[in-house]
Amino acid sequence: MRSKPLFSGLAILFLITACIGQNPCEDVTCDTICRGVTLWKQKCVNGECVPDSVLEENSQECGFTPPERDTAAEEYAVYDALISDWDLIATFHSFEEVEVVVIEDHTSAELFFGGGIEEILERIKEGMPLTEQETLDDFLKKNEQPHRLEDLFDLPVTVVLLSNEEFKEIFQNGSGWEDFYKKYPRSQGIMMLSRVGFNSKMDQALVYVGNQSHWLSGAGYYVLLTKAYGFWTVQSEMMVWIS
Fold this sequence. Notes:
With 243 residues, the chain is an alpha+beta fold. Helix content is 26%, strand content 30%.
């Protein structure tokens, strides 16, 4: 007596069809994964999650601890990039004619908006929406008090740090700007700088810069810079005063 087959031909065909049509990754969700300190995106292959592409090298999520940075060096690197690349400081001479850059020797943030810190934050975020909150927080913290600048600039021109006493001496009468340019010919005028606010990654910076080159020739800006491949570049700027 022959044994009865366990499955009929039709049933076997159904099972084969079902197996062929089944997607082994249909119900699989793949999370990101750390390989060392590199964060990877994963994808499903034959029902298993495997690394697919790098999301972030040296990821703090994967335990990377950024090395300590010299904040002062970064601050002056931002100043150098701003002064070298910003074509609005030369409001009296063309930039090619400038051989001396005169800067007030104490920082100033020129928080013109009024209405308290909250309004200042909102105006900056509105004007430069890519500004990170921690960059704003660091900027405001550092600019609670004036800070003395040092001659740590690395520029192809001479830098003069102008004291408040010298400023008063030059501008004690109506011929102030004429006296100023007699003392500092081929200069851009007088520049004001704030402390620089950074984000935690030290790849975004916010700084105030103003420049006055005559009684009715000047402007002030908040400037957002970003760092890539070791260099700071201006990303956006917002004017806050002009004369």
